[in-house]
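Lecture 7 notes: from sequence to structure.

We start with a single chain of 362 residues. Read the sequence below before looking at the structure.
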Amino acid sequence: MLHFLLYIIIPSLLMSEPTDEHFYSGYGHAALRFQCPELETDFVYDYAGERMDNRFPAFMAGRLKMGLEVMETEAYLAREVAEVHEYPMTISDTLLYALCTVLDSAYRAGFNRKYDPVTGSCCLMLYRYMNEASRLANIPIRYGPWTEDYDMSIRELSAKYSTHCPWTDVMYNTLGDASLSNRNLSKPRKVLYPEQLLERWQSASIITNQYSVIKAGLSSREPSKCSPFLVTGILMFLAVLFIWTGWKPIQVLFIVLIGAMGLLQTYLLCFSQLPHTDWNCLLLPFNLLPLIFWRWRRYWSLPYAAIIAIFLVAIEVPTSLTNLPVGNFNIMAIYYVVASMAVALFYIGIFIHSKSPITNNQ
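Now the structure, written as tokens:
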């Protein structure tokens, strides 16, 4: 409880548990709460993106924006489906005043930032707001030493903090471009996830170690039953089965999959403004070129399969094994390698069965 000017202001940090409600909610969420019992006000400052409900095409195009919004705590809790924890904040009146000044300025700016929950997450923005308030108030914040987390890349941090949400991590590790693998990014720019924000603020005594549950809700820390391991395993099985049988339904399935992924990749690369979706590792096995030149598949299918296999064996596997997350096995590389090898085996099957008299005229 802090005395702010003539009134008592009670600041706190709200942390929502991870859920699978939305793509980015698999990491949880953070916001700031300010209560004034004398004025009977209770508001939450929430840095978030425009809602994706019924706006998925706008999201994929990169047209959504992010910014700071203010709402009553009751409305905020009604919107959250996850369990919400509240951590009391212990900062001086001067720093609190500076923080309110920074937050009000950000709120007046509106939703003016490009939608970027990867390197512009709610936790990172709250961390920046607090540091900006520290400079404004001329009150240094003495954080504890950086942990080994901050020697990781964003991709590796994602692997660590999304173990309960593997599909989110798959998206980071496949559609995400090479910028997410940069370990040399400055440490303050890597405070991206709720556990990290808690650690940094607790190390500086900005918040206490105790919390209260102010809303019971859903939590999805259990892995999805339809896991990436299951899907990639099925793809590999079907690819081997196709080599053996040349079964047409399997060929159609792979063509649809490669075509859909190729269209998505082409759109993200050439037309979308969504951050961190430039060149990525999926472009080699999943692109539109094989479909464009499908008529001549018997000539290019085997060399193309060899190119995919050589890339995986010579580049992707050694790179993944030598760039493991600190204390964590890079399982995402296994998913990518298995899926890509399944595509390579499919093209081997195309080569074999395109030479067959039965399928030569398909």
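The beta strands are 2-4, 7-16, 29-36, 41-49, 65-72, 84-88, 113-114, 212-215. Keep this in mind for problem set 3.
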